[in-house]
Specification:
The chain is of the alpha+beta class and 88 residues long. It has two helices and two strands, in the order αβαβ.
Length: 88
């Protein structure tokens, strides 16, 4: 995982979204408050095997959507990123 330069008024959690520790840190930060927007730019480590990588990406997006459903105040939006590979 890569470190990130601090951004004013932004809380940054360096961790794996699939692990309980990272989710716990996020829930602690929210302290029961609901959110208006979830923006997901997460990506798994890629293996180079297209079907396996697609499944990993889909799993991360599913986790982000599940988190969104638990934490939304009102549904304003969810944005997730999925890449598509093509053989050359």
């Amino acid at each position: 995982m890569l470190e990130m330069e601090p951004i004013a008024d932004v809380h940054f959690i360096l961790g794996d979204f699939r692990e309980e520790y990272s989710m716990g840190e996020l829930e602690k930060l929210l302290a029961g408050r609901k959110v208006d927007l979830v923006l997901s730019d997460m990506a798994p480590n890629l293996s180079g095997i297209a079907t396996a990588d697609a499944a990993r990406i889909e799993h991360i997006i599913d986790l982000a959507l599940e988190f969104t459903e638990k934490t939304y105040e009102t549904i304003w939006g969810f944005a997730g990123e999925m890449l598509q590979w093509h053989r050359l």
